[in-house]
UniProtKB/TrEMBL annotation:
This is Uncharacterized protein. It comes from the Bacteria. InterPro entries: Restrct_endonuc_typeI_TRD_sf. Residues 1-12 have a biased composition (Basic and acidic residues). Residues 1-24 are annotated as: Disordered. Keywords: DNA-binding, Restriction system. It comes from Grimontia marina. GO terms for biological process: DNA restriction-modification system. The keyword DNA-binding applies. One of its GO terms (molecular function) is DNA binding.
Length: 57
């Protein structure tokens, strides 16, 4: 049987949750990404800006 306490002890430290942008900010981001996609300018670098891993500061 798996010992949950031992699993928790060995688990890496979790990073703090990053709050989601407001609904208005989410709508603005979606509109910006759609406009870039329509122009053929949506690149992996732009997607990384919004969906990439956050670096610890």
């Amino acid at each position: 049987m798996i010992d949950l306490e031992n699993l928790m002890k060995d688990a890496p430290e979790s990073e703090p949750d990053i709050p989601l942008p407001s609904m208005e900010e989410q709508k603005r981001i979606v509109a910006e990404l759609k406009a870039l996609e329509e122009k053929g300018e949506l690149t992996p670098e732009i997607l990384e800006k919004y969906f990439g891993a956050k670096k610890a500061q």
